[in-house]
Amino acid sequence: MSRAHKPVVDLRTYRIRRGGMPLFLRLAETIVLPVMLRHIGPPLAYYVTDIGPQDEVMHLWGFDSLGDMEARRRARNLDPQWPQYAVASEGLIERQETRVVRRVAFPVLDDAPAPDAAKTVVEFRITSIRRGTMVDFQRILLAIALPVQLRHLGAPVALYVSEIGPQNELIQLWAFDSLADLETRRAARDREPAWAEYLAATESMITSELTRAVRRVQFGALTPPRNVT
Fold first, then answer.
1. 125, 210 in Cβ contact below 8 A?
2. Which one of 55, 65, 147, 186 has the fewest beta carbons within 10 angstroms of its own beta carbon?
3. pLDDT at 229 over 60
């Protein structure tokens, strides 16, 4: 199984001290990534917030299971290089939040073209679902919303449900060429009658929604040589 399709994902959100983002990202590339690549593998995604709460970093790491996550994080913590990060980042991180989420495996997405990795703007949407209605919400999402989204937005980067951390959450990631592209594609989606049907059918199930526009961080250590396909 490729790491991109690992079923268990550690989703982390950090708020960085104002003005500290360049240093934090430099530490992430020079200290954190080498350790993580040795013990956990490459991140599924690494973002900074563009629109929404500012000075935020969001990164996602995939695992086969909770046991796999526990074992790999233990090995990471024992790496002699890992304490360097704690020392070098002292005072940079104001808040940390972590969730463990599981990938939603809708069969309709298996044949959909994967999102273009060159799309660097991502809509990161967290929808809180009324307790006891997640199964019905996913059924409506699959039957009504996803066909519309696939036509206008393309395949999602990922769909997750929360497992550890805030409960009853559905997390959607959709990639775009730019903020203008996001605006244009969402407007086309919103014009479809089926989208209004989806909104009406799920209105009583959704207790809150939080959305961000985030940008993918391009780390040189994760960029393959040009002659590698």
1. yes
2. 65
3. no
CA separation for the pair 4, 157 (Å, rounded): 10
Segment 146-166, tens digit of pLDDT: 999 999 999 999 999 999 999
**Contact between residue 100 and residue 9 where contact means Cβ atoms under 8 Å apart:** yes
Tokens of 190: 């919103």
End-to-end CA distance of the chain: 19
Domain 3-101 has what CATH class? alpha beta
Neighbour count for residue 24 (Cβ, 10 Å) = 20
CB 37 within 8 A of CB 193: no
Q: How do residues 26-42 score in pLDDT, each as one tens digit?
A: 999 999 999 999 999 99
**CB neighbour class for 121 (10 Å; exposed up to 12, middle 13-18, buried from 19):** buried
**Fold (topology level) of 104-215:** Alpha-Beta Plaits (3.30.70)
Identify the three-state secondary structure at position 173: strand
Q: How far apart, in whole angstroms, are the C-alpha atoms of residue 227 and residue 33? A: 23
For 186, which DSSP code? H
Q: What is the pLDDT of residue 23?
A: 96
CATH 3.30.70.100 residue ranges of the chain are 3-101, 104-215
